[in-house]
Amino acid sequence: MLKFTCCDEVRRYFSPDRAQILRGITRGYERECLRVDVAGHLAQTPHPRALGSKLTHPWITTDYAEALLEFITPPSQDPAFPLEFLRDIHRFTARQLGQETMWAGSMPCILGEDKSIVIANYGTSNSAMMKVAYREGLGLRYGRHMQTIAGAHYNWSLPDEFWVILKGCCSATDNIQDFINERYFGLIRNFLRFGWLIPYLFGASPAICQSFLQGRGSDLQELVPGTLFRPYATSLRMSDLGYQNRAQDQLQVSFNSLAEYTAALEAAIRTPDPFYEELGVREGDHWKQLNANLLQVENEFYSGIRPKRVGKAGERPALALKKYGVEYLEIRLFDLNPFVDIGILPEQSIFADILLLMCLFRESPPITAREQSENEVNKARIVNHGRQPDLSLLVHNREQSFRPIARALFDDMQPFAQMLDVAYGGNNYAATLDRLRARIDHPETTPSAQVLAAATEHNGLSKFALKKSLQHHASLLTQQLNAATLKKFEESAQVSLVEQQRLESLPQEPFEDYVARYYA
Length: 520
Prior knowledge:
Blueprint: H1 7-12, H2 16-19, E1 26-36, E2 60-62, E3 68-72, H3 81-94, E4 101-102, H4 126-142, E5 152-157, H5 160-169, H6 176-194, H7 197-202, E6 207-209, E7 221-224, E8 227-229, H8 258-268, H9 274-279, E9 282-283, E10 286-287, E11 305-308, H10 317-324, E12 328-334, H11 346-361, H12 369-385, E13 392-395, E14 398-401, H13 402-424, H14 428-441, H15 447-457, H16 461-478, H17 483-505, H18 511-519
Antiparallel strand pairs: 1-3, 1-4, 1-5, 2-3, 5-12, 6-8, 7-8, 9-10, 11-12, 13-14
Helix pairs in contact: 6-11, 8-10, 11-13, 11-14, 13-14, 15-16
């Protein structure tokens, strides 16, 4: 049975006037995708100039590789806006790619050797060079192929008025930002406990192209020549094959408070690692990595959810969090849905809204070392074997069947779906939750099962993904952009190019001094 931290406040949010505050929830998406050629191989061309500057464009940039596009939607309180804007980005981008297209899946296309994956070039300014040096370090530490994985990140925050009312109801005596920090971290801890629901419901990477392993061995099975899989996997992207690699196992980052979290990240960017020291930081003027510490920067630490704060220019993330507190959350567990032209369906944010509210209001004790291990085991079981009929999860160190646990969580989420329906009108949240609930007992309806069936039908994952990529590209080209929207994107690209030139025209201090000042 769900235990609430503020029972009276939960009940009050079912009143229409109080529920309206939830209309102030702010949302946004970040979506990554690879550019590929007509044969489905990683594009070797530069980032199209018509898309603007990777360094300064607010909506269209790259992540790790020159060919790894990243689209960013502005924050909005309109629930429909992020995906509408994302679709416009896709429509505009498709028109600038020539013979290339956007890869439909989270796991990459057929890859060559690591050295064939070109790191993104952001220009000659110090800020650009730092981005490149960081990416050089990621490739050195984890392999460049690891940085070709793509996903969708959902950014989410509650309005100021919500926090003021909740603080009063809970009779909290600390200042408002301390209260916000405490409650966001309570939400994060519960998300670490129950966030495995997202890869189960929406995971879409049960298989990989064999080239991704770069000759390494694995326990994966062969689906067809060139495609490897786990029969019941949901999201190999989130497994130890993807971002959840063992290179960061020695990091002990606590989410029990803002102070513990930021202290752990601060320590990690200043603690030398013998292996990274052996790799070296520089060869002459060439920076192989930013430093030889456990983390180059805080964002190198991978977690399925992150507390975030927009800091001042050049301000490190942990320092901004420590000084100003949590501003929003970044949820990082969503695979790209290869059946959808923009990779994301509205049901994903609808479910995330419900889950996040449940995690916020639910009691959230500190996570012990034992529970942290249990949470990691449960997530690993879901991403690797989530559709297995007899799957069990650990609950207080005891094995329990997956399906009753999932059903109970859906029961606990139901009031929050109703709460959001009161806020927005209609029954979209409750109806979506009911539809998704069916996937618990019918795993064949999950995206991961559908991707596996399609990869089998097309005689390989890469063949299926390329077919969908080409179909999506053709579809996006037929979707008209109105004149005002097209002008907006064209002007933003030109403005970003001018801004990059301005930055590069400014006097630049020696790069090593710039890096030292960043860490000071």
